[in-house]
């Protein structure tokens, strides 16, 4: 977006949320790639104290129902604000008309959230304490959301983690072969399609209600937490919160936080499970939600990391076959590299399946249903 145009738009938004206030500074904030996010510092009144806030322009190309994600956030805010907690979610602030969304003259949709001072984010899990803190924070979030009714929450991105939907996308990509790349990746396609049936069992049990639908975060990378020194103190980036499975949150946290390499490591053979990260995260996460886990959830927890890695692998592969139309790529085979990293991580998870299940079972056995 042209910088001058964006400045006009955010000045309009600032006036809507903070009419007549002096802007001291506004700078881009965070590492997110979807929404436009700024740290805003204003003077609350003439000669008064300075205050910081997060000003954000919502990407309505991705989040097509911004009112829905605001409604979800408000529900969480109301649920959590009545409690005194060591971990928080950032609060939304209303504009001058009492609304939590403001639409500028160009159609941009804006919101303001509290800024949580003295915090920082972490991009990679590099030490056991980080994995423990991430597991504790996301487990806290899942536990606090456990009483909430998922039917009252909007689905921010329909079918986001639905395996059958992602498999249909892959099969269509294979059938159409728009980019004429199928011949060189048939063994990768076969790898993923061979596992479709066994992993599909989880969706079947969720559809039948045997595995409960819950309110979950749906994007549990460690950079969606804020830390103060060595403690996670806030769960952020709540746009994806909505109906889902505990397996989504637990599985994706292991996929992103317990792999030895980044998801686009050129040498996919280096992709493997980091045992200490898996164990630290798992024990902390299940300590928070273990008593709320149902027998069916307990039975299938060990498959959650495979499921989420599988879903991301087929998404990367389908995009590669379609000609790289969804994910940003830096070179011709970037999506294929990503898919191969997921494939190698699945192989590593499968090779340690018994050990993983022992850790999960031992962690859950501390709770009596």
Structure notes:
- With 369 residues, the protein is of the alpha+beta class.
- It has 2 domains: 3-114, Phosphorylase Kinase, domain 1, CATH 3.30.200; 128-364, Aminoglycoside phosphotransferase (APH), C-terminal lobe (Aminoglycoside 3'-phosphotransferase, Chain: A, domain 2), CATH 3.90.1200.10.
- Helix content is 45%, strand content 13%.
- Strands 1, 2, 3, 4, 5 and 6 form a 6-stranded antiparallel β-sheet that branches. Strands 7-10 form a two-stranded antiparallel ribbon. Strands 8-9 form a two-stranded antiparallel sheet.
- A hairpin with a 5-residue loop joins β5 (102-103) and β6.
- The longest helix is centred in the middle third of the chain and has 18 residues, at 128-145.
Compile the SSE list and pairings:
Blueprint lengths: L2 H15 L4 E7 L7 E8 L6 E9 L7 H16 L10 E2 L8 E2 L5 E6 L13 H18 L17 H14 L9 H9 L1 H13 L5 E3 L8 E4 L2 E5 L6 E3 L1 H12 L17 H15 L5 H6 L3 H18 L12 H18 L1 H12 L5
Antiparallel strand pairs: 1-2, 2-3, 3-6, 4-6, 5-6, 7-10, 8-9
Helix pairs in contact: 3-7, 3-8, 4-10, 7-8, 7-10, 8-12, 10-11
